[in-house]
Amino acid sequence: MDKSGKAAIIEGFKAKSTKSSFACVTNFKGMTVEELTKLRVTVHSAGGEYHVIKNTLGRIAVTDTNHDVLKDAFHENTGVALGFDDPVAVAKSIVDFAKGSQLFEVKCASLDGKLMDQAGIEALSRLPGREQLLAQLLGTFNAVPTNFVSLFANIIRQLLYALNAIKEKKEQVEA
Q: For position 166, what pLDDT does the model report?
């Protein structure tokens, strides 16, 4: 590969890694193409991308980006999972794939420039995802007006019971 090809790879990966909030460096030594394809599909369905990149090019590409802390992790057979919108979903897909594979290994990750080890990545993968958090927030927002309406409905209901009891009492007195 000539210098212009390497420069294009570096610039392309640097642009993608700059846009991502989460980058996870993995070791895929000994995996088949079918397994890597399955991994790529899994990560893509979680809203991310999985790239295999040469170590030197990867080191150069992440230097002076928000994932600069990962540059020392590029050795052996390196693949990088990038998460753009929901880092939790990408971390879940990587951790779940690693549990099902004997050869795949998660090295470290960067979440908005902060280095994470394997334990940190697993802890991130156990958090609720973005859509689940949005659903919980919507449920909380919806609960306030619902409870407010229920409170006033109960007050009106009690008032109607009292008025009905007074009416029945007057009917008994008149009869």
A: 86
